[in-house]
Amino acid sequence: MNRQLRTAILGSVALTLAACGGGGNRPRADLAASKVTTIGVNAYLWRAALDTISFMPIVQTDSNGGVIVTDWYVNPNLSTERMKVTVTILDQDLRADALRVTALRQVNRGGQWVDSPVEAATVQKLEDIILTRARDLRRAAIAGD
Fold it and tell me: Which top-level group of life is the source organism from (predicted)?
């Protein structure tokens, strides 16, 4: 009986291992899939957002919550204006509605920083740049397979 049990176990192990052999017909994992990440949000959007706003001083990042907050940035060519940006990634999928960018703008008037409206086109342009960069990163990951 003990010998029959041992033979049955060895037989099932051999069949299991035989099913794993070869690997020639197994589908390859899509390493560029949007959900392959060790962070809580889409990795391509996260990397693209960091790349896009890397010229600004970053105050806070939370890769699990998907939030990047910059400090005030003064453009060297326009020292009377400064901006602060917050990028929020809302999903693990690479989609346009998974990204939200908000910006604050201040203008220096008489030595005081005064809040000023941000043009909607500015925020839209930042979102477009991040989304384009994320798509390029994903394409590069797919091509690298």
Answer: Bacteria
Tokens of 48: 């693209």
Residue 139, classed as helix, strand or coil, is helix
- Please provide the DSSP assignment of 26-68 as one string: SPPP-TT-TT--SSSS-HHHHHHHHHHTTTSPEEEEETTTTEE
CA dihedral for 40, 43, 44, 45, sign (positive or negative):
positive
pTM of the model: 0.72
First to last CA, the chain: 50
Other beta carbons within 10 Å of 15: 9
Q: What is the DSSP letter of 38?
A: S
